[in-house]
Every structure is written in structure tokens, then in C-alpha cells.
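testing teh design pipeline on a random one, pls ignore if ur not involved
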């Protein structure tokens, strides 16, 4: 008999321990695998009530619904069953395996976390063909298409990708869409031509049916590699208005709005290499149709004067993606680094305009200097052949100046020779500079020396005064206690202060801060926070009655704010009151 009593008592104790220890907080998803055009529901469930619920950041998803809160509390055969759930609806933003991080909740002073949940997002899946389903109707009547002008270009030949949004006459789009995945165009030089502020609606055909469409964007691309290159898809989140099943009082069908994620799909470009046959030696990667010109602003000048020589390429092609041929001039001409200028406009057809290298040239000696012809080669994709343009030869005449001992008619192909300078070569340098000697001063008798020597001694009284002030501050017990109390109050109320412009969020944070403060000071749980009990416990801890009344008044203000809006002035007033009340309680409580 004793053994049975012992076993019964042991079983009762173990059941009690298990009942008190089994706090459950789980994350449950509606599916572990979904398409990028589907929605995911996630529920955070707990079997005991808690505070300070914090959801994860949902990286890789966009929250399209929630949080929705539901509570179930029932008694069956004397046994309590409690459940509280926070629900969110998510739209995936990218493909691949995405991990939903942990959510946290505080239950009876302990922090509980859910386990991370991994979800796989695949390519768009086929939507069930239900003519009464708004999602299906929207997906069948709105299409995003990427049109490629040339799927088999040469290396560095321009092509365009035009993104068109087709919308049937059965649905409409009245709100602005949003990009959720923008192509990066790896291995391409790219430039977007957006139509974001000037959309024009066209009439056209899609799969043989009448549609309206707009051109969202045209992107100009220049491939930088050969072979098969992929263009990433453009993905949009679009609000679409669809006729629903409900009707208004006049019998007309009420429009229903659904958000759809629509992708243009990937495109593959097969880039051809430039032909090796007929490739010139000086070819530097220019592809297009160009003209070439070399000119100067003057050909007759004196020594030490300057002239400007321009090397210019004009036309249509990859103007920003190659370098101009260099100029080779005689050694006796001083040539500075060229200034590069671009006057290039990128349109739907590609780059067009001109690029110029401007050289500044300063001759040092009198003479005649020939400038040899310069060649420029490019590949024309229309004719699929290389072309070479050669500039004209011209001479630079330096009429006045010192004469070099070398041949006055210099040639860029001549070997380098030693230059013999004339006595008149530096006649422009001023030789009489009228310089004056600097007086020698004795540093050890200067004011700077005495300042550096006596300065540290003058600072000693300041350090002594600062030390006395610090000691007085440390000895001020009441002042230090007040400062600590104010610091503690502002610590608890930091979240409320951040939401001071949003009355609803402010009072939620204020109520949470007051509860957390009571938990820390009185060791009570949320379920025990009844105003009469709070007043009693504070008065027992020697908190003055007016302070307790002000604290209870703050709690009432938080509860009242749930049902009625509050002004910014009252929010500011309650925040200041909360700082003062918490500071006073912290000074008085024992």
C-alpha cells in the first residue's frame, strides 16, 4: 500500500513538472516548396501567452499580408487548452533555397525561439485553370515580354532588349508596378533607356489576340565576350484589377485587385567572334561605321608657342569601348598628354556621336616638321569586313626661334640625336630675382619658446579645479541617484521615444516598457499585472501614493489609446510623465 502511494505521488510530481515545462513555440509553413508566382503562409504558434513577440526579417520574401493574430482558449473536462498564433502571408522575391530566420517571444520571463524553416522557391508554376479564380485570370491576361533585336551579334556589336508589358482588355492596371528583380547584364556593356515618366499605350497583338501594351524599358547592350551569354529576366510585382464574382446594387461586377509577380524570362545571346581574315595590325576593337580625321588649329607658328592637334572619330558604334590611335611626332616637338573628350549619345540604335583626343604641342626650335599619316581600323558588321582610314600628311612650320644643331627638317622616323642648345634658349628666364636674405632669429628667446615652457604650469590649476568638481559630483548622493534614475527611465522608454510621432505605436511601446519595468522591480508576470495589485505592491515598497496614482494613470492612458486616437501634444505629455514617474519610483522604492 505504501508502495502504491509512493508511485502515485511520484507520478503526480512528474506530470506537474512536465506540464509546467512544456512551453511550445513553433513556426509552421503552408508548403515547403512553391513557385516564385505563388504565396506562402507561415504561422507562429505558442501554447502559452507571451510578450514582446518579434518576427524574423523575412529576407527573400515580401510581406503581402499580416500579421494576423488569433487566440484560442478553452476548458474541456477541467483542462485548459490555450493557443495563440501570429500569421503572415509572403511572396517570394527570388528563386533558390531561402531560410526563414527565428522568431522570438517572451513567456514567463524566458525567451523562446522558433527553429529556422527552409523553403525552396522554384520557377513559376502552372496556375490552375479556373476562370472564376482572380489569380488565374490575372496571369492569363497580363504578360511581360523581352524582345531582343539581334540574338546573334558580333563581339562589341550593339543589340537592344525591349521590355513590353501586354495587358488584355479584360483587366486593367491602375496602380504603379514595382521591380523586384532587375537584370545585371553580366558580360555586357549596358545602358538603360527608361520610359518611367512617359508611358505611351499602343495597340498590338499577343498570341494572335488584341492587347494593349507599353514599352517599359529599352536596354542597349554591347557584348564583351564571345559564345552563349544569358540575359537575366526582369521581374515585376504588378497590381491587377480583375472582374470578381460579386456584383454591386446595379448588377455590375465589382473589380477585385490581385498582386502578381510576372517575369520576362531569360534570353540567350550567341555572340560571334570577329573574323581573323583581313584583320589589320593596328585594329583596337572598334566595331561600327565611322569616319576618321586628324587636324590642327594652325600649321605655322613660332618656337615656344602652342598648337592643338585633334584626333577625332565620328559615327555609330562602340565609341566608348576602344582607344584612339596614338600620334607619333618628331622628338624636337614637346607633346603633352592628350585630353580625351566624348560627345556620345546612346539611343535605341546604340551609341552615336564622336570622341576626340586633343594634343597640345609646343615646338622648341625653328624648322619644318612633318606629321606622318595616322591609320584607324574598324570592323563594319553590316558588310562583315574590316575597313582602314588613313589621315592626310601635313607639316608644321616653326618660323622663328632657336636653331637646333640637328637637321632642321626633323622626321619622326629618325634616330634620336643629341640636342645642342643655343645661348638664346633660356633668354626668357629672369636672372635678377632681387632676393633678400632671411634674418636669423634666436628660438630660445622667442615668445613661442616661453609659451611652450610655461604652458604646462598654467594648466595645473585647471586640473585641480576639475578634480574638485568631480569629487563634489561623486559626493552628491541624491544627485547621482536622480541621474541614475533618469538614465534608467530613458532606457526603458527608448522604443517609445522612437515612435513618438505615431501615437498608436507609442502607446504600445509605452505599455510594454511599463510592464517590463514592473517585472524588473516587483518580480511579477504579465498575467499578474492588475492595477489594484500593482498599487498595493508599490505602496508596500514605500513608494509615495501620488507617484503610484500617476503610474496607474499612465497605464489607463495606454489602454484608452487602443480605442481612441491621441494627439501629438498628449503623447509628448505622457512621455515626460513616464520619465518622471519611473525616476521617482526608482528613487523611492525599497
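output:
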Amino acid at each position: 500500500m505504501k508502495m502504491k502511494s509512493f508511485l502515485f505521488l511520484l507520478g503526480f510530481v512528474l506530470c506537474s513538472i512536465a506540464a509546467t515545462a512544456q512551453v511550445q513555440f513553433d513556426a509552421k509553413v503552408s508548403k515547403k516548396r512553391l513557385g516564385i508566382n505563388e504565396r506562402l503562409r507561415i504561422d507562429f504558434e505558442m501554447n502559452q501567452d507571451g510578450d514582446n513577440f518579434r518576427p524574423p526579417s523575412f529576407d527573400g520574401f515580401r510581406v503581402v499580408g499580416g500579421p494576423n493574430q488569433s487566440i484560442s482558449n478553452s476548458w474541456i473536462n477541467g483542462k485548459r487548452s490555450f493557443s495563440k498564433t501570429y500569421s503572415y502571408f509572403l511572396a517570394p522575391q527570388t528563386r533558390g533555397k531561402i531560410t526563414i530566420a527565428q522568431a522570438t517571444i517572451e513567456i514567463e520571463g524566458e525567451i523562446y525561439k522558433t527553429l529556422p524553416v527552409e523553403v525552396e522557391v522554384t520557377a513559376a508554376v502552372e496556375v490552375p485553370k479556373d476562370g472564376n479564380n482572380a489569380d488565374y485570370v490575372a496571369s492569363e491576361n497580363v504578360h511581360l515580354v523581352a524582345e531582343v533585336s539581334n540574338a546573334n551579334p558580333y563581339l562589341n556589336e550593339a543589340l537592344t532588349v525591349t521590355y513590353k508589358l501586354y495587358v488584355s482588355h479584360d483587366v486593367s492596371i491602375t496602380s504603379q508596378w514595382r521591380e523586384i528583380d532587375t537584370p545585371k547584364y553580366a558580360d555586357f556593356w549596358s545602358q538603360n533607356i527608361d520610359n518611367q515618366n512617359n508611358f505611351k499605350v499602343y495597340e498590338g497583338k499577343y498570341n494572335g489576340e488584341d492587347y494593349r501594351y507599353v514599352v517599359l524599358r529599352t536596354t542597349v547592350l554591347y557584348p564583351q565576350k564571345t559564345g552563349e551569354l544569358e540575359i537575366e529576366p526582369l521581374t515585376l510585382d504588378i497590381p491587377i484589377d480583375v472582374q470578381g464574382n460579386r456584383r454591386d446594387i446595379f448588377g455590375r461586377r465589382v473589380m477585385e485587385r490581385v498582386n502578381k509577380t510576372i517575369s520576362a524570362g531569360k534570353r540567350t545571346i550567341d555572340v560571334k567572334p570577329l573574323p581573323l581574315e583581313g584583320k589589320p595590325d593596328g585594329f583596337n576593337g572598334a566595331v561600327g561605321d565611322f569616319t576618321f580625321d586628324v587636324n590642327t588649329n594652325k600649321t605655322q607658328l613660332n618656337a615656344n608657342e602652342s598648337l592643338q592637334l585633334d584626333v577625332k572619330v565620328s559615327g555609330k558604334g562602340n565609341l566608348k569601348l576602344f582607344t584612339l590611335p596614338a600620334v607619333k611626332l618628331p622628338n624636337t616637338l614637346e607633346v603633352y598628354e592628350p585630353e580625351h573628350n566624348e560627345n556620345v549619345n546612346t539611343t535605341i540604335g546604340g551609341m552615336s556621336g564622336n570622341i576626340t583626343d586633343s594634343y597640345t604641342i609646343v615646338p622648341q626650335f625653328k624648322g619644318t616638321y612633318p606629321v606622318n599619316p595616322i591609320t584607324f581600323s574598324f570592323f563594319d558588321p553590316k558588310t562583315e569586313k574590316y575597313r582602314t582610314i588613313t589621315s592626310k600628311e601635313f607639316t608644321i612650320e616653326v618660323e622663328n626661334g632657336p636653331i637646333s644643331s640637328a637637321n632642321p627638317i626633323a622626321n619622326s622616323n629618325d634616330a634620336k640625336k643629341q640636342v645642342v642648345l643655343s645661348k638664346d634658349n633660356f633668354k626668357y628666364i629672369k636672372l635678377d630675382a632681387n632676393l633678400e636674405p632671411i634674418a636669423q632669429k634666436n628660438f630660445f628667446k622667442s615668445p613661442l619658446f616661453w609659451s611652450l615652457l610655461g604652458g604646462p604650469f598654467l594648466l595645473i590649476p585647471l586640473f585641480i579645479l576639475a578634480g574638485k568638481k568631480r569629487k563634489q559630483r561623486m559626493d552628491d548622493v541624491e544627485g547621482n541617484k536622480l541621474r541614475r534614475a533618469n538614465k534608467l527611465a530613458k532606457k526603458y522608454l527608448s522604443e517609445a521615444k522612437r515612435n513618438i510621432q505615431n501615437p498608436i505605436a507609442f502607446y504600445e511601446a509605452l505599455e510594454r516598457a511599463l510592464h517590463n519595468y514592473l517585472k524588473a522591480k516587483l518580480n511579477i508576470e504579465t498575467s499578474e499585472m492588475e492595477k489594484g495589485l500593482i498599487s498595493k505592491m508599490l505602496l508596500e515598497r514605500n513608494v509615495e501614493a501620488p507617484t503610484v496614482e500617476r503610474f496607474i494613470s499612465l497605464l489607463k492612458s495606454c489602454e484608452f489609446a487602443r480605442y481612441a486616437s491621441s494627439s501629438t501634444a498628449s503623447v509628448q505629455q505622457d512621455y515626460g510623465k513616464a520619465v518622471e514617474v519611473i525616476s521617482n519610483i526608482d528613487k523611492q522604492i525599497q
